Amino acid sequence: MNHPAHQFLVDRMLGRLIAWLRIFGYDTKSALDLEPSSDEDTRLIDIAKNERRILVSRDRALIDRAKKAGADAILVGSDDVRDQLEKLIERYRLDADPNMTRCTVCNATLREATKADLEKLKKSSEVPEHLLNDKETLWVCEKCGKAYWRGSHWRNILKTAEEVKNSHKQAE
Ligand SMILES: [Zn+2]
Asked: pLDDT tens track of the chain, all 172 residues?
C-alpha cells in the first residue's frame, strides 16, 4: 500500500459503525472513550486534526465546524449501519474486507493466541471448550484480552460485508 490507511474518530450514537470499521481493520477511536469534557465538540475536532483522523458524526453543526477548522469530516444521515458503511466506502474507497486484526471493543490490535493464552482461556468460560480442543485458530486482543474466532457469527459478518460492498457497486 502506498497510501497510509485511513483512521477514524466516530461520534456517539454510532456504536455499530465503530465495530464495523474495526472489523475491517481500521484504527477507529470512539467519542465514548474520551474523558468527559464540557466542550466535547472542540475536543473531537482537535483530535481529528492532530491525529489525522476522519471525524464521522450525525451532527451537521459539528461536521461543518470540523471542516472549517481544516479536519476531514463526514456527515452520516442514515441511522442504518449499512447505509453508513456504504457512504464511507464510497467516499474513502475503504477495503471492506473483514479481517482479524483489531479488537471491536477497544481498538487495540489482535494477535494469534499463544499457548499461555490458551491456558488462560481454558480457565475462563469466554470461549466454548471445543474451540480450545479443536486447535481452531483463536486471536486475543493485545490490550483487553478479548478472544476472537471465526464461528458462525463470522459467516454473518462476511455475508453482511459482501452485501454492503455489492449494494455500493450497484449504486455507482
Ligand atoms: Zn480489546
From this structure: 445 689 999 999 999 999 999 999 999 999 999 988 899 999 999 999 999 999 999 999 999 999 999 999 999 999 999 999 999 999 999 999 999 999 999 999 999 999 899 899 989 888 888 888 766 789 999 999 999 999 888 999 999 999 998 886 666 5
Residues 36 and 63 in one domain: yes
d(CA 21, ligand 1 centre) in Å: 14
Per the listing, cell 459503525 goes with: 17
Q: Clarify whether residues 53 and 127 are in a common domain.
A: no
Helix or strand run (H / E) with residue 164: helix 152-171
Q: Is 48 exposed, middle or buried (0-12, 13-18, 19+ CB in 10 A)?
A: buried
Structure pTM? 0.92
Residue 144 Cα to ligand 1 middle (Å): 4
Domain limits for position 127: 110-148
Best CA proximity match to 74, nearest among 169, 152, 147, 6: 6
| Ligand 1 centroid from CA 64, angstroms | 32
Q: How far is the CA of 106 from the centre of ligand 1 (A)?
A: 4
Residues, beta carbon < 5 Å, ion ligand 1: 103, 105-106, 108, 141, 143-144, 146
